[in-house]
Amino acid sequence: MPARLKPPSLRQRRNKASTRATLKAGGMRAPALPVRGCPCGGPVELPKPARGKRKPGRPRNPPPVCAECRGTGTLPWHHLTVAWWARLWASPMGPEYIESDVDALYITAGLVEAYWRSGGSDGRLAGEIRQEMARFGGSPLDRRRLEWGLEPPEDEQPAAPTPEPEKPRDDPRNVLRMVRPA
Ligand SMILES: [Zn+2]
């Protein structure tokens, strides 16, 4: 039996970029951002809060041992980096990333972190982030290049076109009708 020909809409897709994908709504859970040690060399134990009545003259909250990590020894990520990371993975691109992409994305996260920690105006860092993210579908243009088409939201999807009624001459039943004795 000869192989059935695919409809032309599918046949056209041959020889296109191997990265082609239609991105559905993502909603992936982001992997945890890496733990970064503080240069202070922590963790440093914070002084335990005094039990019972506070002695007069003693400060209510002792100042943190290290302003960067507040004595935990672990550098916190900037809230904008955390938000970027979560959005990236929750986006329709999230499911496209594979395990080995995470390491490269960690490096990008470091650049995003440096960008926000330095005041959010470093053009060199912004360029580096853009360059890195281009490999991961960071902009509409990058997604077009990777042939990552975004699926339109369900309520915006055009209704399926009504199939054209078969022309009478193509319908084998018409032939049968013609030969059927009256
Ligand atoms: Zn520290």
Order of H and E elements: HEEEHHHHEH
| Low-pLDDT ranges | 8-14
What separation lies between the terminal Cα atoms? 37 Å
Count of DSSP E strands? 4
User: What is the residue-averaged pLDDT?
Assistant: 79
Strand order of the largest sheet: 1-4
Task: Offer a concise description of the structure.
By secondary structure, the protein is mainly alpha-helical.
Describe the structure.
- The chain is mostly helical.
- It has a domain at 19-35 and 64-151.
- It is 32% helix and 5% strand.
- The strands form two sheets. It has a two-stranded parallel sheet.
- Mean pLDDT is 79; it is low at 8-14.
- The structure holds zinc ion.
Provide tags for this entry.
182 residues; mainly alpha; two-stranded parallel sheet; two-stranded antiparallel ribbon; 6 helices; 4 strands; elongated; binds zinc ion
Topology (elements, then pairings):
Blueprint: H1 8-11, E1 21-23, E2 36-37, E3 74-75, H2 79-90, H3 101-117, H4 123-134, H5 140-145, E4 148-150, H6 172-179
Parallel strand pairs: 1-4
Antiparallel strand pairs: 2-3
Helix pairs in contact: 2-3, 3-4
The protein binds zinc ion.
